[in-house]
Amino acid sequence: MAEAHQKNHDYHIIDPSPWPLLASIGAFVLTFGGVGYMRYLNGGSLNLFGIDFATPWLFFIGLAIVLFTMFAWWADTIKEAHDGHHTRVVSLHLRYGMIMFIASEVMFFVAWFWAFFDASLFANEAIQASRVEFTGGQWPPVGIEVVDPWHLPLYNTVILLLSGTCVTWAHHAMLHNDRKGLVSGLVLTVLLGILFSFVQAYEYIHSPFDFKNSIYGATFFMATGFHGFHVLVGTIFLIVCLFRAMAGHFTPQQHFGFEAAAWYWHFVDVVWLFLFFAIYIWGDWGAPLAH
Fold first, then answer.
1. What stretch(es) of the chain map to CATH 1.20.120.80?
2. Which residues neighbour 20 within 8 Å (Cβ) at sequence distance 6 or greater?
3. 86-279 has which CATH code?
């Protein structure tokens, strides 16, 4: 009995974190506010219980809640790691969580690839409402001038491949406790990520087609635009890792925060390769190039 009593005292209940609940509230407000914001931009209304929610404020309030929750929750996670609470089991579950998150992101991009291939492979399908009207029965649609894949898109492909090499260098440097190599690799990766975003922004500004009134433009900008957003998120992720590396947070034995960022960055690289070959090369084949 005494031994069983002692075993019971070996376990303690951790106070439940408020962050999951706050994250759920923030996500709801952000989503609902986003719908209201779009109604507001279109001059519409969103009436519920006699209140018009067509306003931008709910969206920004939800965004602020989500960003605060992300900062506070991850700060707690880092503190737990420094306090020694990340046992082998906890570390394994953190890895499972990141793997599941990346898997969900894969399915997110599958949706945009599905939309692109559905429109491109069946450009003359009569049963699709207005499909032929918007494509002219061919892909790329009639009248569309496309971006030269061997210019800025190829340049950005090289940038991302180089950034993947740099983050791998940083990872191996950390495993060998080479702090200088870790910081240098992360700095180069961050700079390349920022350069990619600037090049893509320049490409968008000078794009020969628009997002609206074109099924080609809609599928192109949704797929490449969301990838660009993921590059921005990954760059921020790596900037945080850079500051943590400079503060001496990572060790060869405990560095999952950086490892997760590296996984995410490699995922972003792979998605871009699919985008480059599917949308820029195959999807633009035979269309006139913009000058």
1. 86-279
2. none
3. 1.20.120.80
What ranges in the chain are assigned the alpha helix state H? 2-9, 19-41, 57-82, 88-121, 131-135, 152-175, 179-205, 215-246, 256-275
**Residue range(s) occupied by CATH 1.10.287.70 in the chain:** 17-84
Does residue 188 carry a pLDDT above 60?
yes
Domain 17-84 class? mainly alpha
> HSE-up of 179 (CA within 13 Å, CB side)?
9
DSSP for 118-136, written as a single string: HHHHTTT-TTSTTHHHHHT
Residue among 291, 280, 286 at smallest CA distance from 150:
280
- β-pair partners for 51: 48
User: Residues of the chain with pLDDT > 90: what percent?
Assistant: 57
Q: Which tops the pLDDT comparison, 137 or 24?
A: 24
Closest CA to 231 of 153, 175, 163: 163
Task: Return d(Cα 144, Cα 284) in angstroms, integer.
Answer: 10
Upper half-sphere CA count for residue 288 (Cβ side, 13 Å): 9
pTM of the model: 0.85
Q: Rounded to an integer, what distance in angstroms lies between the CA atom of residue 252 and that of residue 176? A: 7
| Those residues with Cβ within 8 angstroms of residue 95's Cβ, 6 or more apart along the chain or in another chain | 256
Lookup: tokens for 94: 């953190």
Question: Among 235, 270, 257, 240, which Cα is nearest to 98's?
Answer: 257
Residue 168, Cβ neighbours under 10 Å: how many? 15
